[in-house]
């Protein structure tokens, strides 16, 4: 039996579905957004999707290995604690988990050669933590679906 999230989520039979589920999660989170910051996120996403079709899928696929590594300590603690809902567990540690996840995209933005995408990311980064925290229950459900 696989021991780590990397082994579970990146397994050849699981990874394509994890990526598809991640894209569904992104779409659901964006649909729930409103207000100025929500509209900024939607605009950034639309801009990237329009000017670089397939880029979001490629980016999710490329960031998934690091996301699995970053979520592993939380997953291990959750499993030891015997929790029932990984999404609830992540939400209770919202700020810590959000910053861990955002450190992945921050590093990616620092290395990307896609100026338009980086500009769109930087335009929404200041408010990103609250949006990531709001998505943690769904993210936890996604991980639990594949690893639980």
Structural overview:
The structure is a single chain. Helices cover 83% and strands 0% of the residues. The chain is an all-alpha fold and 148 residues long. The protein has one domain (5-147). The relative contact order is 0.17. Helix 2 crosses helix 4 (55-81), helix 3 (35-51) runs antiparallel to helix 7 (115-125) and helix 6 (94-111) crosses helix 8. It has helices at residues 5-9, 15-32, 35-51, 55-81, 86-92, 94-111, 115-125, 128-147. The longest helix is centred in the middle third of the chain and has 27 residues, at 55-81. The protein contains 8 helices and no strands.
Keywords:
148 residues; mainly alpha; 8 helices; globular
Topology:
Elements: H1 5-9, H2 15-32, H3 35-51, H4 55-81, H5 86-92, H6 94-111, H7 115-125, H8 128-147
Number of domains: 1
The major beta sheet can be summarized as: none
Low-confidence stretches: none
Q: Can you give the mean pLDDT?
A: 90
Strand content: under 5%
Return the structural class: mainly alpha
Distance between the termini: 12 Å
Question: Treating each run of at least 4 consecutive H or I residues as one helix, how many helices?
Answer: 8
Radius of gyration: 15 Å
> Count the strands?
0
Quick recap:
With 148 residues, the chain is mostly helical.
